[in-house]
Amino acid sequence: MAYQYDLFVIGAGSGGVRASRVAASKGYKVAVAEGSALGGTCVNIGCVPKKLFVYASEYGHGFGEAAGFGWTNEGTKFDWSVLRDNKTKEIERLNGIYGNMLGNAGVEVISGFASFVDAHTVMVNGKTYTAERILIAVGAKPFIPEFQGSDLVVSSNEMFYLDSLPSKALVVGGGYIAVEFAGILNGLSVDTSLAYRGDQLLRGFDEDVRAFASEEYKKSGIDVRLNTGVDRIELVDPEDQASERMVHFKDGTSERFGLILYATGRVPNVGSLELDKAGVEFGKNGAVKIDKNFKTTADSVFALGDVTDNIQLTPVAIKEAMALIDYWFDGKEVDFDYDNIPTAVFSQPAIGTVGLSEQEAEARGIDFRVYQTDFRAMKHTLSGATSRTLMKMLVNNADEKVIGAHMVGDYSGEIIQGLGIALKAGATKADFDATVGVHPTSAEEFVTFSAGALKERK
Fold it and tell me: Which residues of 188-204 are buried (b: 16+ CB within 10 A; e: fewer)?
């Protein structure tokens, strides 16, 4: 059967754009459908604008710390509209770049949300398109549970376009999005509370990292409330949708907030795809089921990125796209290594991690040892801040390879990228020890761990 396209991609996010561009460069006739802005979540309502907001919020702390270095900063003020609008201009610039990249590669861009008609056919804006292969790369979306007053909260999507900043805000959630936005709001001088129903933030991270980061968030001025759940929310003035929100917590207390952000997880964005028409199966959380080669239960349909149950990170989706291209064009079976993927949380302080946590290593039955230290960074000897930095390294006793590295502190994301290369290459503790440190930096601690830093484990 003759098809209109060799490949039809649903979703122009990081993974979808990479797959469509490279496939087109190799001779495929490719179309990509996108119902929102080009670039997907990361570029438009995710990592890129969020990092810009993080930069802005860091100045809030920096001005206060500058006095110890001799700087005076009387009369400083912050204008939310300038940050918001400059961010939007930058995102629009990136949208244009993505459009040019796709166009230059010969990819046809179709504006609109696609849904399946069958395993080789999709519909966009009432028009059908056929393709030999279809790739699902629609990403994920914020999840807000239904409860009384859930319509009065915002998700991370709306945070980038607020008309104004509140004087007081509540962030609900304990994951990376929650702690990042709590840091942003706090740094922009918003009275910020962070409520999480569990007994510690950042589930899935190393336990020492979780505990250390939580205490540092408190030091920075965030009101961290653990074991705290929301019962219901209502308007203080029922006649005014813009009025403050009254939050009734499950412990019986109530409090007013100008803004409530729910950062309670993300779910695959499959609601309008009509996957059943293509014979594509998905799990209870909506994640599309795939085999190791990213093939779904329909032979002609593939999926990658956040819409699957794999790690939800932009660089992972891009790497998956390249692995899929190699499978299609070179017949290489996909052997994607999801271990040793460097990850950063751009909270304040930031977190960087690669490899196994102490708990994961224990669960795998590995015989290992731990080096760990925390210290006050040189900067803060004059800044007056009480912030501290945590560094942690796990070493496999069987072969001396470093199997985990974790950091909480300034520049963690930048530092952990280099360590990610070392772990991927199989570096040993001796390799780290033989590396000359860059002095004076925090990063040099990773190559100077001695027996004195050994952590006593139970």
Answer: bebbbbbbbeeebbbee
